[in-house]
């Protein structure tokens, strides 16, 4: 029988739609604001090694490389081969294939002493146990390391809440086939809960937390220094 686990469905979905996803991830409305907000809040120091879990086509790479500079390193980790292929092609075309690794964000394939900053963008909602993943990422960077999250969730801001039903449709359309059935609940509700859990866990683990909302409260950014 075919393996229809959520992880397998996600890998198939993101590999098949990698080029379409890449176009949205780099040129979609509001994405520049969202990605700048993550890089600003994470603020990895020059020379740092920064790891992005669930990197997709590495649309955050230029924003984070601008922060860490030529002495620093961006490492992207994703479990979907199709998005990594697109990310590697772009890197190679720009003269630097970069460090793009196939791996599971919930089992970081990296040495703990090698990472200064970790982040995830639009991935918390895909993790069945986001609290454990965020704790693992915090352990990876260790005390003094930087940790950041960027996610989308339904807004609580009056005036913008009218757009929540449309956002719910966007989440459903952007979920691998069978997600709603596998969850037994609305994907947007599950995404809201997972995003809230991930960001709360980061706040519990970090000091000097910078927590922002952008784009009418749909974009959630949190970052801090691991205690
Ligand atoms: C919505 S995309 C976000 C991609 C990228 N971070 C961005 O900002 O455009 C989610 C990505 O997370 C990856 N992903 C989801 N769960 C993962 C896991 N457990 N391990 C590694 N990658 C994962 C998917 O393959 C997909 O590429």
From TrEMBL:
<keyword id="KW-0489">Methyltransferase</keyword>
<dbReference type="InterPro" id="IPR013216">
    <property type="entry name" value="Methyltransf_11"/>
</dbReference>
<keyword id="KW-0808">Transferase</keyword>
<protein>
    <submittedName>
        <fullName>Class I SAM-dependent methyltransferase</fullName>
        <ecNumber>2.1.1.-</ecNumber>
    </submittedName>
</protein>
<dbReference type="InterPro" id="IPR029063">
    <property type="entry name" value="SAM-dependent_MTases_sf"/>
</dbReference>
<dbReference type="GO" id="GO:0008168">
    <property type="term" value="F:methyltransferase activity"/>
</dbReference>
<dbReference type="GO" id="GO:0032259">
    <property type="term" value="P:methylation"/>
</dbReference>
<dbReference type="Pfam" id="PF08241">
    <property type="entry name" value="Methyltransf_11"/>
</dbReference>
<feature type="domain" description="Methyltransferase type 11">
    <location>
        <begin position="52"/>
        <end position="147"/>
    </location>
</feature>
